[in-house]
Amino acid sequence: SLWLPALLATPFGQGDPVTGFDLAFTVLQLPALHLLVSVIAAQTMVGMAGCLWLTFTEGRSLSDLRFPGLSKLQQRVLQPQLAVLALVAALSNALAPFDLMVQGSGVASGAGFVDLHVRLPLRLLLTALLLLTAAGLLVPLPRDWLRRGALIPLATTALLVPFAEWIVAPLAQKMLVQPRELALETQYLARSIRATRQAFGLVAVRQLNLNPRQSLTPEDLAQAPGTLANIRLWDSKPLLATNRQLQQLRLYYRFNSAAVDRYPLAADPVRQGSQQVLIAAREIDTGALSKDSRTWLNRHMVFTHGYGFTVSTVNAFGPDGLPLYFVKDLGKSVKVQGIPSLGLTDEMVRGALPVGRPRLYFGSAPTPYAIAPSQVREFDYPEGDLNVYSHYEGDDGVPIHHPLRRWMAAAYLSEPRLLFTGSLNSSSRLLLRRRVNERLAALAPFLRFESQPYLVTARVENHADYDPEQHQYWLLEGFTTSDSYPYSDANPAGIRYLRNPVKAVVDAYNGKVWLYVSDGSDPILKTWRRAFPELFQPLSSMPLALQQHMQVPRSQFSIQAERLLRYHVTDVRTFYNGDDVWSIPLEIYGSTNTPVEPYHLTLQLPGQNKPEFVLLLPFSPRGRPNLVGWLAARNDPPHYGEQLLARFPQQRLLLGPQQVSSLIEQDPAISYQFGLWNRAGSRLIHGNLLVLPVGKGLLYVEPIYLQSPNNDLPTLVRVVVTDGTTFVMERNLKDALARLTGQGPSPALGLPLPDAVMP
Fold it and tell me: Global pTM?
């Protein structure tokens, strides 16, 4: 992953601020050059060590503990190796300008005043002397000239380098620079701010100044019908816990994750055809089989795949506090149904959520290899007291019916039982790398992929590459990164450059992989496309049914948000003073304080009339719990990927998530109810606290769950809403909003909440 980008490097079209070289040299070629220098240096030193050992072992040098010196013949043998070592050392020091731009030691990230005025000149001087020494060793010159003309200055400079690095440079930084640090480091700080914002894509973030009121009126609610119609009340964690109790059905099934997505379900014109849902795949977990059933045959030939998925609405729950499902159960008992309280019929849901053959041979959880089809029937799902079986009909996998292929598979897997089983047939295939992340990492190891794929069920028609009978696909995000972007401040993981130019699609049944380019301007991806031109397809080739489910990756969004905590500031003096640094706020989630994680919402952004599917994260000033702004990433076309940073006036106190969570627990009426539940032995679970722009104010919404100490089955029992001044807890969102604004649930309120957003 180093040599190809170095040889095929695509220019960035921008030079670094010190040498003027295109950034492609530092980002793509410098790591390979460092490796090459290290390899040559290691080989040269090994060769020298061998020659010296032969020299020392000649005669009686070791036994007499006396070294008579090197003969002229020995010197002639060692001189070329010393010359190569000097050349390698010269090249290593010649890279100092690029190394310092990445690994500077001043107040700025990258080369600062001391780096460029003390360290760099000395390293370049050492480079020149090393080149002179190498020439003296290769060219037949008088010995005295070599000693006086090169070796003495070289030795002097070599001693000065560590002295300058460890003593002179720190002293210069402390005594010369720090007393007037801002004046001397201003240009380098400006370089670091520009480079970091460019490297992490922060330049494209659009800023908006808002001054929200700390109270809400019915008019504010009437201005945001699209936001109120899809407020998320179910979090992924409580839903997964509920799914495991109600929809896992057998021990060998597992709901590994639940993804927030949107589907064209909503009949209400306020929602404009978008219904936010939680979708979770029911995957196989052979490790959960009973000990007696955990045989090799069962693990690799019988229990080969998961089956089905659940889809539930995020903004409604039943009278028992449990989720309302669009898709639930499995097999012949699978239910694909509408939710009348949301105005959704069975026909609408069946059209938007196709099920088809929901066999999941490839998934997000760790899964062993499988052998399918074979003479052994593969378990599909339980049906009452009986089980339903099937055979794999896909075209993925390595055919292993031939004896030679079987020998090769047995050797690769270190599994001799493959040689003796009589269960294979002429169609048997070996299915490997069935975990989506591992599959993509093997196919494109030069990309980083988001850790958690999400399942999409869609009807893809009239597309040659896709099977029209297959509806389940995994979507995953591919990233290009670098740790050598000049002057960019590395995040805690050491990343200095980040882009998300690839959308990966994996067929959950056949395992086929498609890689689509969503950002063709990324120079790193351009380089890899030159190496593998047939691996990638343009985003326009992705079926529209899948494009509608693209999401800005949470990991990229989190990294950019973390960088924005400090690099939203572009003024050098303000950045240096550090008086406008932000932090990720805390909230009470479950029963503990935890940093707020980015959450998906369907809402109307400020100035927009149409609701959008966005990823949002609020910010607080460092050391203070109040709210200073939020970052939102837009997911719907034609604005996919656009980011909006809303900033609030710092002279006003707007409550942050931690403050709202604390005030909720301090409200007398709410606290009294919480106390009753706690005394009854139930476990109180605080859901994600959502901060929503509504009209000219802010709306805070927190779902409250209850869980029995004897059963991991959370139920949604209350909804807390507040505008920062009034705190209301009700059984449903509609009543809570009506009380918050001092109105009754009348048509004049204009709420897009039918009687059924909560029954």
Answer: 0.91
Q: Computed from CA positions of residues 408, 410, 412, 414, in that sequence, does the dihedral angle turn out positive or negative?
A: negative
- Taken in order 117, 120, 123, 128, the sign of the CA dihedral is negative
Mean pLDDT, rounded, for 17-46 = 93
Q: Which pairing describes strands 536-538 and 513-517: parallel, antiparallel, or unpaired?
A: parallel
Distance CA 506, CA 394 (A): 14
Sign, Cα dihedral of 248, 249, 250, 253: negative
DSSP category for residue 410 = H
Q: Which residues lie below 8 Å from residue 735, measured CB to CB, with a gap of 6+?
A: 745
> Do the beta carbons of residue 321 and residue 706 sit within 8 Å?
yes
Tokens of residue 227, six digits:
């936001």
Residue 132, helix vs strand vs coil? helix
Number of neighbouring beta carbons within 10 Å of residue 224: 24
**Contact (CB, 8 A) for 376 and 423:** yes
Q: Which residue has the tokens 């670098």?
A: 482
Cβ-in-10-Å burial (0-12, 13-18, 19+) of 189 comes to: buried
Please give the single-letter amino acid code of residue 596. V
Per-residue HEC secondary structure of 155-173 comes to HHHHHHHHHHHHHHHHHHH
What backbone phi and psi angles, to 5 degrees, belong to 582?
Answer: -105, 175
* Percent of the chain whose pLDDT exceeds 90: 61
- Residue 305 Cα distances to 12, 209, 381, 400, angstroms: 45, 51, 10, 19
Largest CA distance in the chain: 108
Cα distances from 351 to residues 336, 457, 507, in angstroms, run 10, 11, 20
Tokens of 481: 């990164």
Where do we find the tokens 């010190």?
A: 18
Residue partners of 219: CB distance under 8 A and separation at least 6: 695
Closest to 227 (Cα-Cα) out of 759, 737, 684, 669: 737
Express the helix, strand and coil content of the chain in percent, nearest 5 each: 40, 25, 40
Backbone torsion region of residue 578, taken as left when φ is above 0, otherwise alpha when ψ lies between -120 and 50, otherwise beta: left
Q: What is the DSSP string of 630-648?
A: EEEEE-STTSTT-EEEEE-
| Nearest C-alpha neighbor of 165 from the set 63, 93, 229, 81 | 93
Q: Is the pLDDT of residue 228 over 80?
A: yes
Q: Which two tokens stand for residue 13?
A: 């079209």
Name residues whose C-beta falls within 8 Å of residue 58's C-beta, 6 or more positions apart in sequence. Answer: none
Tokens of 250: 């057998």
CA 224, 670, 624, 237 torsion: positive or negative?
Answer: negative
Give the pLDDT confidence of 598-625 residue by residue, as tens digits.
999 999 999 888 899 999 999 999 989 9
The DSSP annotation for 257-296 comes to: EEEEEEETT--STTTTT-EEEEEEEEEE-GGGS-GGG--H
3-class DSSP state of 675: helix
pLDDT at residue number 151: 64
pLDDT, the chain, mean: 88
Rounded CA-CA distance 501/46 in Å is 43
Q: What are phi and psi of 4, to 5 degrees?
A: -60, -50
How much of the chain, in percent, has pLDDT values that exceed 70?
Answer: 92
Reduced to 3 states, what is the DSSP secondary structure of residue 111? coil
Whether 365 contacts 254, CB under 8 Å: yes
568, 645 Cβ separation under 8 angstroms? yes
Q: Using an 8 Å Cβ cutoff, are 161 and 117 in contact?
A: no
Q: Which amino acid is at 358?
A: P
Counting Cβ atoms within 10 Å, is residue 187 exposed (0-12), middle (13-18) or buried (19+)? middle
**What residues does 399 pair with on adjacent strands?**
429
Instruction: Look at residue 65 and tell me whether its pLDDT is greater than 80.
Output: no
User: Residue 674 half-sphere exposure, CB side, CA atoms within 13 Å?
Assistant: 18
Gap between the Cα atoms of 156 and 158, Å rounded: 6
